[in-house]
Amino acid sequence: MATARTAPPGRPIGTVPPARQRGTGVRRAHPLLDLAGRRLVIGLLTLFLVSVTVFVATEVLPGNAASAILGHNATPARVRALSLQLHLNRGLVDQYWTWISGLFTGNLGHSLAGGQAVWGLVQPRLINSAVLVIVTGVIGSVVGVTLGAVAALRKDSWFDHVTSVVALAVTSLPEFVVAIALIILFATVVLHVLPAVSLLAPGVYGWSQPELLILPVATLVIVIVPYIFRMMRAAMIEALESDYVEMARLKGVPEWQVVLRHALPNAIAPTIQVIGLNFLYLAGGVVIVEVVFNYPGVGQGLVYAVNNRDIPVIQLIVLVLAAFYVLMNILTDVLALLVSPRRRIPR
Amino acid sequence: MRRFQWPSVLWAALRTPRGAVGLALAAVVVLIAFLGPFLAPQSPDALVTLTFAKPSSHFLLGADFLGRDVLSRILDGGWQLLAMALAATALGIIIGAMAGISAAYLQGAPDSIIMRAVDVILSFPQLVFALLLLSMIGPKPWLIVLAVGLSHAPAVARVLRAATLDIAERDYVKAVELQGMRPARVMLREILPNLSSPLMVEAGLRLTYSIIIMAGLAFLGFGQPPPTPNWGTMINENQTGLSLNPWAVIVPAVLIALLTIGTNTFTDAVARVAIGVDRRPEQAALVDDLSPELAE
Question: How many angstroms separate the CA atoms of A178 and A199, rounded?
Fold first, then answer.
């Protein structure tokens, strides 16, 4: 008959059970999925609050939205008619729900300016802006990383000093100054080799008329490269002065291998975060560039919509941009974790 | 740590080459902006000559798209932009500082609520946020200042919250807490004076961005209504005449550029001094990543 003092079956009395290994007791969730999952939940909550903010800013703020839209043409009869059309007679929560459920079912309403379906207006603009952002991101990252690495390798040379000073100056410039400078240099005053506006016909996208993309992309690239350059330079300098690089050199590894296989991968990690942040910045940065070059993207669309008080279009574009922001934030955090294995160990 | 370090930090920054150059550039443009209205030869709104006339002895910079004297409009068109940018920066710093310090010091529920709000506002690009707030009421100057100031507050809050978390555990804070000082007084008299370095750097960065965003808003047509001269608006309205009289576009653009380069360079110098780069040269390389988005 077993008593409380009997050893557990299968184990002779007097032995010590094997030490519990980390992770074999309660199963720990994979740290990467854990982090991504948590960020996603917080991101969705943030997006919900963002949508409420957009709704409040466009439909709740002072004055009847209908009379704001009608402006000088606001007779009582017209205000009433427009209010009915905009569902302003219903409660606020009701209106918000109509809008949000419409987003999920694909019914995004109609433009107040021209009457077309909002999605039909916004979708080609989204594609155009996406082309701009992706091309800029790729070119900007390559150029920034290269310049940063070279400046780090030639630290304190004239190249390093000149590029650092230029980088600091360029980060301070407003975008439209860069855009105008490029237009003056290449399109109107000094040279006449590139078009000053980038009017894409409806239905035509950037890849079929690449020369129209050159100046807008060049502007955005010039704007983001300094940030990537500075981070890459700082990270590369730190990597080149670290112990493992010194070890590799002492072992007799050729310098190019030291740079490419030991220093560069470790310098890329923080730089990827900056690249992600710059993609983020581009979401807002496209607005001015698109207006300067008359490029039909979401930035230009937003400015037109604000000028016309086209509420459904404003709401959709701002929501899309904010969603892009939140998603890129999550992606950047996850990427930073992926490239820095140190950070994966749960503390 | 000494209190009220900021005069000595500013003076030290001024003595570095970057600081001197930055402040000089900014000062030149500020002088033009604030003394300009008294020096303008013509009235900025008067139609005096042909549209896009080339520079002449009467009109040193030529004429704009309506035939007004470009030089006078430039001299008149800076101070309002600058004043609004200063106001927006001050508003953003004050709101952001209150939010960030309270969040870090009070912890718990206030911290969560404030940081949630910060996350939400930071999900919008600054320009888009300003456009959103301006979309319904229109570009009134007070609303522009409010919108831009609000868009700065979250970033300031984040930076100061991180700095406060560092300070709140120090002995001198604990000492006055034990003496029974109320939280508001602790924040104001013990914590705030020791945040002067991050505050100054943030103020400089935010001022640079205020100028950039407000000039951008003016460029997009959301500045003061015409015919008020404004450097940002001038760049847009004279863009069509670039081949005829480029000075109407070039000069305001150069002025804005010099101003923002100046303020940014001076802020960079202040940040370097605040981090004590001179005493720790090995950190000099790492200071170069003063990207605003990374200031978390």
Answer: 19
